[in-house]
Amino acid sequence: MDKLDRFIKLGRAGEGTYGVVYKAKNKITGKNVALKRIKLEKFYHKGDSEGVPPTAIREISLLKGLRHSSIVELLDVMQTTDKLYLVFEYLDLDLKRYLDNTEMPLEAELVRSYMKQLIEALAYLHSHRILHRDLKPQNLLVDKEGHIKLADFGLSRSFSLPTRTYTHEVVTMWYRAPELLLGAKMYCTGIDVWSLGCIMAEMLMKKALFPGDSEIDQLYKIFKVMGTPGEEVWEGVSLYPDYKPTFPQWESVDLTNMIKFHTQEEEDFILHMLTYNPSKRKTAKELLKTNYLKTAKLTAPEMNAFPHDIDEDSSWSNV
């Protein structure tokens, strides 16, 4: 029996970086899975017989060594002549689609529950010296029970201390930390924490906090809210490659004018993550000790936001 024949195709679940993600059911266990299909022929190069994109190799190698309740589990890897399939546990939809499907901002306790799960996952990743580097609502998966999980590790990488030089062209623009936008060649776990701060704001606002359309516009969007940073608030900022003393000078604004916070603890928590200086930004491990997360409990999301079951279609002929 071909490995792929063990699964009944239920339909497309979404688009991945290098191909389509399908919802499928394991005939033996009856459990739903997500199949990420990667076409290999696009990646054949001279002397490269494998044709597997490096991001897929990176994702497989990282996920095989990770086991955490808030990180999507890689169940299996299957290869056909011209395709690679990654078999993941299935969750109903991503956070971006969930937010799009709901009319109101998320309830306070759901935000708290989601943030605790995400911070726990991040603390686990960082303790294993892995940066996610592409945290955004599209890469967070949610289910009807209230679980949220980190997914899509195509841009992730291991880091070592002292920090080596990495590409700063990572993290989708709206969730990119200011040090990356200023051309930092050396960075660490704080870039993931900043991204989660932006995501939390989006849960509370139902729209992106810093929706820039270019690197400079992204920086200015941040400056207009957080204030243009100088040495007094961010020691060493003027040493970044893309820092300009001629940046327009904006004063910081009161975040409560933009975000309807439920409590002071909630506001303080988001500010711990949206701190300019990466060395002063709280780590995931430190955030877990805050009062805001101590009272978090699993909270069910709004059921109406979830799609109805997809009709079964067992044919794999065009997949």
Automatic annotation (TrEMBL):
SMART domains: S_TKc (SM00220). Pfam families: Pkinase (PF00069). PROSITE patterns: PROTEIN_KINASE_DOM, PROTEIN_KINASE_ST. One of its GO terms (biological process) is regulation of gene expression. It catalyses: L-threonyl-[protein] + ATP = O-phospho-L-threonyl-[protein] + ADP + H(+); L-seryl-[protein] + ATP = O-phospho-L-seryl-[protein] + ADP + H(+). GO terms for molecular function: ATP binding; cyclin binding; cyclin-dependent protein serine/threonine kinase activity. Residues 7-293 form the Protein kinase domain. PANTHER family: CELL DIVISION PROTEIN KINASE, CYCLIN-DEPENDENT KINASE 2. GO terms for cellular component: cyclin-dependent protein kinase holoenzyme complex; cytoplasm; nucleus. The keyword NAD does not apply. It is an enzyme of class 2 (transferase). This is cyclin-dependent kinase. InterPro entries: CDK, Kinase-like_dom_sf, Prot_kinase_dom, Ser/Thr_kinase_AS.
